[in-house]
Amino acid sequence: MRPLVEQHHCRVFSPEGLAEKIDPFESLSSGIISQQVSGAAAKSIKGKFLALFEDNPGDKFPHPSQVAARTIENLRTAGLSQRKAEYIQGLAEKFASGELSAQMLHDASDDEVMERLIAVRGLGKWSVEMFACFGLKRMDVFSLGDLGVQRGMAAFVGRDVSKLKSKGGKWKYMTEQDMTELSDKFAPYRSLFMWYMWRVEETDTSTME
Predict the structure, then answer these.
(1) What CATH number belongs to 23-135?
(2) Quick check: pTM over 0.85?
(3) pLDDT at position 198, please?
(4) Active-site residue among 146, 160, 178, 204?
């Protein structure tokens, strides 16, 4: 583990990263954009999404009310699927109305965050886990369902992930039991462990960070 830590600076959980103010709407929207696409594709789509709101300075993420006011057709021009455009617009409406807020999510426990957000259309367990990790900077998040984490962990313990994929399919890199047993050794800092497992296989998480 030491070589990984020495090679990669984890800015997300560094003092400067933890001090940054995070926009929960941006974080959750970025999670939706990143669902079931590569890191490179997510980065491209997010860039096009920001370009739709060109009046905003730099890479500033639009306010929920701005997104809620756009049509689904307009949002789709950024490369979003019909459903993802609907999910992000619906999420924007919840933040614009005050049904969801940064303070509410900040004050909620991990279980409360999961319960409240899993009820939002378009936010599954993985998306909420990514938000808890990157948006709320919770230190003990671990996603068993993240393929990049699974690949990284398999490689970390010395398995040949290319052979495992050809033999068993994409979900056979490592069992959930093996992942749990290994990750539990790093509690209550499993978010950090997860971040370093992404680095093992060079998984791009920049869209969510």
Answers:
(1) 1.10.340.30
(2) no
(3) 94
(4) 146
